[in-house]
């Protein structure tokens, strides 16, 4: 049987009260480990991340190749002209 002292329960309830007032960051070996936050705030953050569109692995790979000139795609001056005219 696990024994818990009254002072430990009091400390835990104080931590829960702090969580209700604001976010808590729990660290492990001085590195972020767990974040305790209001559920509504979590939902808001989670929904806002859905609005971002991320590049696929293929797009990231191609971007890197374009940056160093190794892309298999044929980008020439006519592509730049289309981009400049907004077509």
Fold and architecture overview:
The chain is α+β, with helices and mostly antiparallel strands. It has two domains: 51 residues, no CATH class; 35 residues, no CATH class. The protein contains four helices and two strands. A two-stranded antiparallel ribbon has the order 1-2. The N and C termini lie far apart (72 Å). Antitoxin component of a type II toxin-antitoxin (TA) system. This is Antitoxin.
Keywords:
Antitoxin, 4 helices, alpha+beta, YefM-like_sf, 2 domains, 87 residues
Distance between the termini: 72 Å
Could you list the spans in which at least 5 consecutive residues all have pLDDT below 50? Answer: none
Total beta strands:
2
Continuous helix count: 4
> Main beta sheet: strand number and arrangement?
2 strands, antiparallel
Radius of gyration: 25 Å
Instruction: Give the overall average pLDDT.
Output: 75
Number of domains: 2
Q: Quick gist of this model?
A:
Helices cover 56% and strands 13% of the residues. The chain has helices spanning 6-21, 39-50, 57-68, 77-85; strands spanning 24-28, 31-36.
How do the strands and helices of this protein lay out in sequence?
Layout: H1 6-21, E1 24-28, E2 31-36, H2 39-50, H3 57-68, H4 77-85
Antiparallel strand pairs: 1-2
């Amino acid at each position: 049987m696990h024994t818990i002292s009254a002072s430990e329960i009091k400390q835990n309830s104080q931590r829960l009260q702090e969580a209700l007032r604001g976010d808590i960051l729990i660290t492990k070996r001085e590195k972020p480990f767990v974040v305790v936050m209001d559920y509504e705030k979590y939902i808001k953050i989670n929904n806002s991340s859905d609005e971002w569109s991320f590049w696929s692995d293929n797009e990231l790979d191609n971007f890197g190749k374009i940056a160093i000139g190794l892309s298999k795609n044929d980008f020439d001056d006519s592509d730049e002209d289309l981009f400049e005219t907004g077509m």
